[in-house]
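=== RUN LOG ===
request id: a7f3
mode: sequence -> structure
chains: 1
length: 391
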Amino acid sequence: MAKGKGGFLGHDGLNAPDAPTGVSGTAGDTQVDVSFTSPSDVGGSAITGYRVTDGTGAFGASGSSSPITVTGLTNGTSYTFNVWAINAFGWSVASDASGSVTPVQPTIGLFAGISTDQDLIQKITVNTLGNTSTFGNLSQARDQSAGCSSSTRGVFGGGGGTNTMDYVTIQSDGNATDFGDLTENRRYPAGCSSSTRGIFAGGSDVSGGILTIDYITIASTSNASDFGDMTVGRRQFAGCASSTRGLLSGGTDGITKRNVIDYITIASTGNATDFGDMLYAGWGIASCSNSTRALIAGGNGNSSYENVIMYVTIASTGNATDFGDLTLARREFSAVSSPTRALFGAGTTGSTSNVMDYVEIATTGNASDFGDFTTAGKNYGACSDGHGGIA
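=== RESULT ===
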């Protein structure tokens, strides 16, 4: 029973502190950082600490100042939090509850088979800033591959003139394992995926550009099956997806640069349909997405556009719109994404780069520096466990 300024029965309510205010939470991996403003009226003595609990009282933590981290939470579950101030005379009443906060598993991006170290798989936490670290090695050393992924598994297909596919568990460092074979050998294909189905499209064998699109079930291991054809056979282009639709952008057939954007419905099979056009024709571009917006960046096109980032709304059709600029104009690179952030890594400007930069997908504007690849290089496969195709 509260009494006086907020102390409880058995405490000196007149000298207990007021409740903290402005309580909010910042989600992490199985934890939330709870921030608050200390009360201006601390009561009869200085505040000695604070107590935070979730709305059920099942999870809590104590600390001497804001923020206080509550651990042991379940990713994907929403929580609210209350805070109490404590002094020698007792506890305040509970603060007003925070808004709902949902802990999330951090998005891991993987980069596999870079030109300068064709065995290497590098990883990055997309939600943070920093340099890549070593994840493991491919089952077969090669560059020029493509990646696709579910929320748990990444698959790298093609590259080096092979039909090889191999897979990893994204949240667990280690070497890749054989998955099966593509329907044909492919250099420079593009990849995209929903939460269950992976797509490997186009590429080249010896010259020109392949038309065919393959698909796999990511949770299984087996050879790929034929999905259909692209509108134009090409290589060195890029894929991304929402949970239902895949986009395949740019590329070259070895002679002609393309500005075409194709789309497919991932859960079906059939030929690709024209979506619209990029701002320029180019190859060696990078692309990634959240659930609604696709970003397409860089590439070897008109020199005025090689640092450009474009965007489209995946559920519609139409031409791309300018988003902003990369920190470094480049080509033959790839991108990964979380639900909110796009990250573009390495590539070449004539000499290979180790630069990574990022943007927030829902906004528009120029990219900012993220960190560096372990090794400078180009022509690698990429995927993440938080991209737009994962519902």
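=== NOTES ===
The CA atoms of residues 14 and 274 lie 72 Å apart.
The chain has a mean pLDDT of 93.
=== END ===
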